[in-house]
Design brief:
The structure is a single chain. The chain is an alpha/beta fold. The protein has a single domain (55-260), classed as Glycoside hydrolase/deacetylase (TIM Barrel). The chain has helices spanning 5-12, 22-26, 85-96, 106-111, 113-121, 141-159, 175-185, 204-214, 228-243, 251-260, and strands at 40-41, 47-48, 62-63, 72-78, 101-104, 125-128, 165-166, 188-190, 220-224, 247-248. The strands form three sheets. Strands 4, 5, 6, 9 and 10 form a five-stranded parallel β-sheet that branches. It has a three-stranded parallel β-sheet with strand order 3-8-7. The protein starts with a helix and ends with a helix.
């Protein structure tokens, strides 16, 4: 029987003892620096000021979708930035006039800072996806805090933005830790309501069919911009969403619109 992604990750991860929440509750986040107002490179190499995007700071600690919001959805991409696939995706989104949310791995931001800067410069949202993509439920409280803080710091230093959204690798997290995350760092944990399982590499057409077949109002769609077939699938998905009457917003934009509904 084929094991699921989370089980596979846990078999590969070190058998760290699970920690209680008491240490987490006592952790203090680093003081956020003001957002940088510095020129960032665009796709053409020119420099311009970062585009102002919505940053959700509402009370929710944990979301999967935004019911009752109307014909709006949010495309989200995990595990980047990737030096080749992410720029290809950004080109596509720019042509379509669509914004998305990118949940970035900290060490990839450090490795490919120009790609991370381009994401922000073109108006997209960036979120925290930990520093090294571990299964957080296998880590102690202190190590979870370190993963979150290190990623938050590098995103701020590279892009000049302090994100307000967090996505746990593999969706492996607890609501108790989600509440701590909100209270300590102001981060809302964002899961998803549409998952094409593109990480299994089923092919671009299958990914597109799964996403368009399951989309609904207020959906948060999960994908991974590290996979070339996923980028190819977006050539069908984005126009398909538009033809169905959906408007793509950043996740913060979707949450803000939901709060106004």
């Amino acid at each position: 029987m084929e094991m699921d992604r989370r089980t596979f990750a846990r078999l590969l991860a070190s058998a760290a003892a699970l920690g209680g929440v008491s240490a987490l509750m006592g952790c203090q986040g680093r003081e956020a620096k003001p957002e940088a107002e510095v020129p960032l490179p665009t796709a053409g190499g020119a420099a311009r000021k970062p585009v102002s995007t919505a940053r959700y700071t509402g009370p929710e600690t944990w979301v999967r979708s935004v019911p009752g919001v109307g014909p709006y959805v949010s495309l989200t991409f995990d595990d980047g930035p990737h030096p080749v696939n992410t720029p290809r995706l950004l080109d596509l989104l720019a042509r379509e006039g669509v914004l998305a949310t990118f949940f970035l791995i900290g060490k990839n931001v450090e490795a490919y800072p120009a790609v991370a800067q381009r994401i922000v410069a073109e108006g997209h949202e960036v979120g925290n996806h930990t520093w090294s993509h571990p299964d957080l439920m296998l880590l102690s409280d202190e190590r979870v805090a370190g993963e979150v803080e290190k990623c938050q710091t590098v995103i701020r230093e590279v892009t000049g933005r302090t994100g307000t959204l967090f996505r746990p690798p593999y969706g492996s997290f607890s609501r108790t830790r989600g509440a701590w995350l909100k209270g300590t760092y102001g981060l809302t944990t964002v899961m998803w309501s549409v998952d094409p399982q593109d990480w299994r590499l089923p092919g671009a057409s299958v990914v597109a069919q799964r996403m368009l077949g399951a989309v609904h109002q207020g959906a948060i769609l999960l994908a991974h911009d590290i996979h070339a077939p996923t980028i190819e699938a977006m050539r069908t998905v984005v126009p398909g969403l538009k033809s169905r009457g959906y408007e793509c917003l950043t996740t913060s934009g979707l949450l803000a619109r939901g709060a106004m509904s």
